[in-house]
Specification:
Keywords: Hydrolase. By secondary structure, this protein is of the alpha/beta class. It has two domains: 274 residues, Aminopeptidase (3-Layer(aba) Sandwich), CATH 3.40.630; 113 residues, Alpha-Beta Plaits (2-Layer Sandwich). The strands form four sheets. Strands 1-2-4-3-5-16-6-15 form an eight-stranded mixed beta sheet, sandwiched between helices. Strands 10-12-8-13 form a four-stranded antiparallel beta sheet, with helices on one face. Helix 4 links the parallel strand 3 and strand 4. The two termini are 21 Å apart.
């Protein structure tokens, strides 16, 4: 492993920043404290800083030499509405909020890279460090783009990094093309006519219709979709009625759809609406489908992924880089940035949880888990990766 000496020497300071952010989690766009911390450090190191990009995002810009080329590096700042189970000293001080996905670590890694680039960076061009709010919900990446992110801070390519439990500590995993899925939500409402449960022939039962819709939806994935195209359609909620002896007037069911392509997503939405309408009609009910597309699939540019893999291999060695990683059905709003600019999103291994000491909760150290904690050993690895990426891209 060829980490940058000055970053390794600064690992303790990066850990302190990470743990301070962990202790003070902020959700969605309400990341004022974290954004102020980030902006203050960047200004201290000599970056030109712009606040309130996409509501509460922060962008730091550093230019060297005469090249017009520019690179964007992104980290997310927001936490999750989770009550932390850990009891260590840097546990959350905010009830019902926790950094359960490692965005505290992502922010600290990019700050570590920014500090080194300001003091020692050997590059010709412009580095834009992008600190984004509301990745978990609210589409902060899209909000920053809508606020003119890439017009105000031009980038030839953009790169991001996310920790991943289960991958060995400090290893990298990436692939060209689809790395993460799109995410969409749906809610299907069925309207019939309520009646006494002892006399169902006098009503039109939306609960029975909902059961038929639930079964019919699975035929979209098993019979309409090309088996080669990855997709998940999960019904996660069914709601109807209040009394056990009354057939209700309304029922609804909802869930999520995940795909790796817009074409497959178009197919599922189209077939869902057709299946629901036909099934509801067969049982004399009215229907309505609300289909909300949230984040598109995260699609890595092949050329920029190849460049990133080269940097990873030079940093940690060939045996610690999986360049053909299996994609995941989880979603990520960095996908909006990759739709606007070529780039690469990658995973850095958070390990199996062995880094956890006394004070951790009993649960697994997985993302979105109340017992999760970011592995601080990754801070100099991720920061070194970002620096090497800049030096390679703007060499």
């Amino acid at each position: 492993m060829k980490l940058i000496d000055s970053i390794q020497a600064n690992a303790g300071a990066l850990q302190a920043i990470r743990r301070d952010i962990h202790a003070h989690p902020e959700i969605g766009y309400d990341v004022q404290r974290t954004a102020a911390l980030v902006a203050g450090r960047l200004e201290q190191w000599g970056f030109a800083v712009t606040r309130e990009v996409g509501k509460t995002g922060v962008v730091g810009t550093l230019t060297r030499g005469s090249s017009t080329r520019a690179i964007g590096l992104r980290a997310d700042m927001d936490a999750l509405p989770v009550q932390e189970a850990n009891t260590f000293a840097h546990r959350s001080t905010v009830a019902g909020a926790m950094h359960a996905c490692g965005h505290d670590g992502h922010t600290a890694m990019l700050l570590g890279a920014a500090q080194h680039l300001a003091a020692h960076g050997a590059f010709d061009g412009t580095v834009n460090v992008i600190f984004q709010p509301a990745e978990e919900a609210g589409g902060g990446a899209r909000a920053m783009i809508d606020d003119g992110l890439f017009e105000r801070f031009p980038c030839d390519a953009v790169f991001g990094l996310h920790n991943w439990p289960g991958i060995p500590e400090g290893d990298f995993a990436v692939r060209p093309g689809a790395l993460m899925a799109s995410t969409s939500l749906f809610r299907i409402t069925l309207r019939g006519a309520g009646c006494h449960a002892a006399m169902p022939h006098l009503g039109r039962d939306p609960v029975f219709a909902a059961g038929q819709v639930l079964s019919a939806l699975q035929g979209i994935v098993t019979r309409n979709r090309n088996p080669i195209d990855g997709a998940v359609l999960s019904v996660t909620q069914i709601h109807a009625g209040e009394a056990l002896n009354v057939v209700p007037t309304d029922a609804w069911l909802g869930g999520t759809v995940r795909t790796f392509s817009d074409e497959t997503l178009d197919l599922i939405e189209r077939r869902m609406k057709a299946v629901v309408a036909a099934t509801a009609s067969a049982f004399d009910c009215e229907s309505e489908v609300d289909f909300e597309r949230q984040y598109p699939a995260t699609i890595n540019d092949p050329a920029q992924t190849a460049l990133a893999v080269e940097v990873m291999r030079n940093l940690v060695g060939d045996e610690h880089v999986n360049a053909t990683a299996e994609p995941t059905m989880a979603a990520e709003d960095f996908s909006f940035m990759l739709r606007a600019k070529p780039g690469c999103y990658a995973f850095i291994g958070n390990g199996s949880g062995d880094h956890r000491a006394v004070g951790h909760g009993a649960g697994p150290c997985l993302l979105h888990n109340a017992s999760y904690d970011f592995n601080d050993a990754l801070l100099p690895v991720g920061a070194s990766y970002f620096v090497k990426l800049v030096e390679r891209f703007l060499g």
